[in-house]
Specification:
The chain is of the alpha/beta class. It folds into three domains: 5-144, Gcn5-related N-acetyltransferase (GNAT) (Aminopeptidase); 151-333, P-loop containing nucleotide triphosphate hydrolases (Rossmann fold), CATH 3.40.50.300; 337-425, Helicase, Ruva Protein, domain 3 (Orthogonal Bundle). It is 43% helix and 13% strand. It has 18 helices and ten strands. The chain has helices at 14-24, 37-45, 80-83, 89-104, 122-128, 148-156, 166-169, 174-189, 191-196, 215-226, 244-257, 285-298, 318-321, 337-347, 358-364, 370-390, 405-413, 421-433, and strands at 5-8, 49-54, 57-67, 70-78, 111-113, 204-208, 230-232, 262-266, 304-310, 328-331. It has a five-stranded mixed beta sheet with strand order 1-2-3-4-5, with helices on both faces. Strands 7-8-9-6-10 form a five-stranded parallel beta sheet, sandwiched between helices. The longest helix is centred in the C-terminal third of the chain and has 21 residues, at 370-390. The protein is elongated and about 90 Å long. The model has no long low-confidence stretch (mean pLDDT 87). The structure holds adenosine-5'-diphosphate and magnesium ion (MG).
Length: 437
């Protein structure tokens, strides 16, 4: 067998490295390699690679990358045929590692390490050459939701990535949460699982309910839960576009269609999709028609979800709510006692809550929306702070004045219920006649 030589990488070796990379990925591998080919090639070109050559063919390579005083091997492989040779195999591995180390040494590295997928051969060679296996480690990774290229597109449409824990921040509302989880989140987050059971992931949904019940909150929570960017479309802001709102909608949706993933949200959609007809036809009719068309086209692509919200679902154009346009028409109603308790708990400071009679507050807030409860709780906090400031200054560590049940009840008396009994009754009717789950 001809001798194997070790030398520095040069640009002509790229093809050889690519072939070696392909040979190194075991056929059984289910996950993509930790360091993709692009990264390996980039490291090669930064002169941090050495190769083993036999008969003009690249039979092995060690590729490193240095940052912050540490060196990482992003690729280390010697062809099986060479490794199996008792004379040359170990020598090629040792030679490669030695040569790479000498290349990286001038960079002042304190350590050289490599992450090795289980079931590959690289480990033996490394251990034989002075590398120690560290036990008790776990490798974790998270793919960031948006790549750089996508960021520019997102900016164009005013989209953003929301914080990751919004879903947990929605207190109570368990029934609604369960519905959204089952119908939206799971099928979209796990399309393979959905497909297994023949569930078609939704493309567009309508949330309806009185103001302040949490429709916007839920739309954002769904985006956060899916780790998809949130893009809110404001039709009223499109009126300045050339061609008016209809043309503006078309352009906006064209831009949104470029995004890989997105939760698109249109709030108060009744403003542009109310019942059509009438003589003379309402001025928003062209806009409604355009929106209908856009929803239809939006449905053609995967990885996106349109959420529309309305306070007046009965005012919507019948064609708008038809099957085939919105997969679900989901009511978001007033919170029940359990939900109210969860919402109170969220807005009452933690060190105060033990001294507050939650049950009294829950009963006293029947008929209030989450937004009303939030308002009352914040008002009570404000009042307590103000009255405390009027008294003597006491150091925070020796303070004994805390918010009481009465403080909250007083704030409740000053809180007007957003939802009148009549609205609540109409909502009940809408749930019976319009909701579709
Ligand atoms: N389940 C909830 N838990 C805690 N706060 C909530 C909840 N739902 C809504 N809120 C609060 O109520 C306010 C109004 O909610 P929003 O989602 O804007 O209602 P809607 O869009 O239905 O009018 C927001 O400040 C939100 O933080
Ligand atoms: Mg809203």
């Amino acid at each position: 067998m001809t001798r194997t030589r070790i030398r520095d990488f040069h640009d002509d070796d790229l093809d050889g490295i690519i072939r070696l990379f392909e040979a190194a990925v075991p056929e059984s591998a289910t996950a993509p390699p930790l360091y993709p080919l692009s990264e390996v090639l980039a490291a090669c070109q930064r002169n941090q690679a050495v190769v083993a050559v036999r008969d003009e063919e690249i039979v092995g390579a060690a590729v490193g990358r240095a940052a912050h005083g540490q060196g990482v091997l992003v690729f280390f492989h010697v062809l099986e045929a060479v490794r199996a040779d008792p004379e040359q195999g170990t020598r090629a591995e040792a030679g490669l590692l030695d040569a790479l180390e000498r290349r990286l040494m001038p960079l002042g590295l304190g350590k050289l390490s490599m992450l090795i997928p289980a079931g590959t051969s690289a480990c033996d060679g490394l251990v034989a050459n002075g590398f120690e296996t560290r036990s008790g480690l776990k490798y974790v990774e998270r793919h960031l939701p948006v790549q750089r290229r996508e960021l520019d597109r997102l900016k164009t449409v005013g989209g953003r990535i929301l914080p990751r824990h919004l879903w947990d921040g929605v207190s109570g509302m368990q029934e609604e949460k369960d519905t959204l989880e089952d119908r939206l989140v799971v099928p979209l987050a796990e399309p393979d699982l959905a497909d297994h059971f023949g569930v078609v992931p939704p493309r567009a949904v309508m949330l309806f309910g009185p103001p302040g019940t949490g429709k916007t909150t839920f739309a954002k929570a769904v985006a956060s839960r899916l780790d998809w960017p949130f893009v809110e479309v404001f039709p009223s802001r499109l009126s300045g576009e050339p061609g008016g709102v209809a043309a503006g909608l078309r352009t906006t949706f064209e831009q949104i269609n470029e995004l890989e993933h997105a939760v698109v949200f249109i709030d108060e959609v009744e403003e542009i999709a109310s019942k059509r007809g009438g003589e003379p036809p309402s001025p928003t009719q062209g806009v409604t028609n355009e929106l209908l068309k856009q929803v239809g086209q939006f449905r053609d692509r995967e990885g996106r979800l349109l959420i529309c919200a309305t306070n007046f679902v009965r005012a919507l154009d019948a064609a708008f709510l038809r099957h085939g346009r919105f997969d679900y028409v989901i009511p978001i109603g007033l919170p029940d006692a359990t939900a109210r308790e969860a919402i109170w708990s969220r807005y009452i400071p933690e060190h105060t809550i033990a001294g507050v009679d939650l049950e009294v507050l829950v009963n006293a807030s029947d008929g209030l929306t989450p937004a009303d409860i939030e308002y009352a709780a914040r008002r009570a906090s404000q009042e307590a702070l103000a009255s405390s400031l009027r008294q003597q200054h006491v150091d925070i560590s020796s303070r004994s004045d805390v918010l009481s049940t009465d403080d909250y009840l007083e704030a409740l008396r000053a809180t007007r219920a957003t939802v009148s009994e009549e609205t609540a009754r109409e909502f009940g009717e809408d749930v019976e006649t319009i909701a579709r789950l």
